Amino acid sequence: MKAASIAALLSLTLAGCAVGPDFERPAVPVTSAQAFVERPPAELASADAAAERWWQLFDDPVLDRLVVRALERNSDVRVATANLARARAALREVRTQRFPSTDISAQYSRQRAGVQPGVPNQTQAFEFDSFAVGFDAAYEVDLFGRVSRSVEAARADAEAARFDLGAARIAIAAETARTYAQLCNFAEQVALTRETLALQQQILDLTQRQFSAGRGTRRDVARIELLTSQLEAQVPQLEAERRASLYALATLTGDAPAAADEAASQCLTTPRVARAIPVGDAASLLARRPDVARAERQLAADTARIGVATADLYPSIRLLGSVGLNAAEIGDLGDAASQSFSLGPLISWSFPNISAARARIAQARAQTDASLAGFDGAVLLALQEAEQAFARYAGSVERNIALRRAEAASETVATLTRARRDAGSDSFLDLLDAERSRAEARLARAQSEGAVAEAQVALFKALGGGWESDPEESKR
Hints:
Layout: H1 2-13, E1 45-46, H2 61-73, H3 75-95, E2 101-113, E3 126-141, H4 146-212, H5 218-252, H6 262-265, E4 277-278, H7 282-288, H8 290-310, E5 316-327, E6 339-348, H9 355-422, H10 428-463
Helix pairs in contact: 2-4, 3-4, 4-5, 4-8, 4-10, 5-10, 8-9, 9-10
C-alpha cells in the first residue's frame, strides 16, 4: 500500500511532464463577426443568429413531424449514434489505465512427480494435490504522460464521433426537407398540368365543333390535339416522380415504401420560408458547423498521439504486487506456511534500440499534418458551401419573381388572344401560340417554386444548424 501511495504521488507530481506537443486550435481565415461575401437582399436574409430547428421556419406541421421522425429513426443517424456509443466506451476503457489493474486467481491441480535420480530414499513416483489462491496488482507510473495522452486522444475521438452524429443529423434533416419539398412540388406540377390540360381539352372540343360546322380546318384540330397530347404525356412522368419522392421520404423516416406517410402524400403546395432567413456571420458559421468541429477534434486526437508515441522513448515503470496461498491440502491454505507475497517495481526500456519508437513518432506527426490539412479544408469547404448557397438562393428567388411576372403576362396574352380570335381579329395560330406559352410559363413558375425551396434547404444545411438539440448530449 505504501508503494502504491508513492506511485500515485509521483504521478500527480509529474503530471505536467507529459511529453509531446499540447494541442492548440489552428487559426481560421475569418475574423470575429465577419460578414459573408454574398449579401442577399434584406428581405431574403437577416444577420440574426441561425435557427436551430430551421425546418420549423417553413411553417408546415407535416414537415416538422417528418424531420423529427427521421432524426429518431433514420438508419444513418442510428449508425452514427452507435459509433458515438462505441467511442465513449473506448474512452472509458482507456481511462482505466489510470488505476491499478488487478487479477484474482484460484487453482487446483493433481500432480505426479517421477523418481529423481540421485535423490536418496526415493524409490518410486508419488502424487499430490495442489491448492493455490492469488491476488495480483499492477500500476503504471505515468512519468512521461503515455496514459494521460492516451486518455486525451480517446476523449477527442469521442468528441469527434459526437460531431459526426451532428453532421449526420444535419444531412438527414436537410434531405428529408428537400425530398418533402420535391414531393410537394411534383404534386403541384401535376395539378397545374391537369388544370391546363382541362382548359386545353375545352379548346380542342370547341375547335372540333367549329370544324364540324365548317369553320376552321383539319390542320387546326390536329395542332390542338398535338398540344393536348404533349400535356397528357407530362402528367404520368410528373406523377411517377411524385410517387418516387414519397418512397424516398419513407426510407428517410425509417419506414418501408409501403408504409409511406399518408399526410405527406396529400401535399399539393411547395413549402417555402416566407420571411428573411437568419444566417449570422462567418465566424458563428464555423463555430456551428459540426464537420469543422469534428476536424478540429481529429486534429486534437492525433496531436495527443504524438505524445503517446514519444513516451516510448523513455522507460516504462510499473509497480507490481501479489499475494497468494499455496498448500497441498485445502484446509492448510490459511496457515502461515502457505502464504507468499511479492512487491516491487518493474522498469522496462527499449534503449538503445529506439528506431521503432522514432518511426512511430514520425508516423504520428505525419498523421497530425494530414489532420491539420483536413481541418483547413473543412473550414474552407464550410465557407464555400455557405457562399454558394447564398448565391444560388438569391438567384432562384430572382428567377422565381421573373417567372411569376411571365406567368401573369402569359395569362393576359392568352385571354386577349382568345377573345380576339372569337371576334375574328386573330388567327387560330395566334391562339395556339398563346396557349402554348401560357402552359409553359405556368409550369416554369411551378418548377421555380421547387428550386426556391431546395435552395432554402441547401442554405440551412450549409449554415450548419439543426443538430444542437441532439438528445445524445444529455447522455454525456
